[in-house]
Design goal:
The longest helix has 16 residues. With about 140 residues, the chain is an alpha+beta fold. The chain has one domain: Gcn5-related N-acetyltransferase (GNAT) (Aminopeptidase, 3-Layer(aba) Sandwich), CATH 3.40.630. It starts with a helix and ends with a helix.
Length: about 140
């Protein structure tokens, strides 16, 4: 997955490490989907289900393979799996600066959630250490 993320020019986040992904992969393997061309990973998506809400994150397609419907097929499959788990609503996580990703979700008829604001806190890493030094 890490190689595919680089090829797709997707910026990795603080949780995009093998150690961080292993527990999720062990618990929800069926929600980690790959698109392959032979043995080459050309697309990825990660679904999440917490028993209450579904989520989709880290949708990435190798630029050489874009415009072939790979992202749509990955999303269709992960949505189906989330529906089978009981999801009634799925939140798709896209960085505000990811224009290509935002166009994709808008073209898929997903609605921009205007009423909610998402807050995050990095519990490990530089941002958390800087805020602890300031207090």
């Amino acid at each position: 997955m890490h190689h595919s993320t680089r090829e797709a020019t997707t910026a990795p986040g603080v949780t995009d490490t093998a150690a961080a992904l292993r527990p999720r992969l062990a618990a929800q393997r069926e929600l980690f989907l790959l698109a392959l061309d032979g043995t080459r990973i050309v697309g990825t998506v990660i679904g999440g289900w917490d028993g209450w809400r579904g989520s989709i994150a880290r949708l990435a397609v190798d630029p050489v393979y874009r415009r072939e419907g790979i992202a749509r097929r990955l999303v269709k499959h992960v949505e189906h799996r989330l529906r089978m788990l009981g999801a009634k609503r799925i939140r798709s996580v896209v960085l505000r600066t990811n224009r290509r990703g935002r166009r994709f979700w808008e073209s898929a008829d997903d609605e921009l959630e205007r009423e909610a604001v998402t807050y995050i806190k990095d519990l490990d890493g530089a941002k958390a250490a800087a805020s602890n030094r300031g207090s």
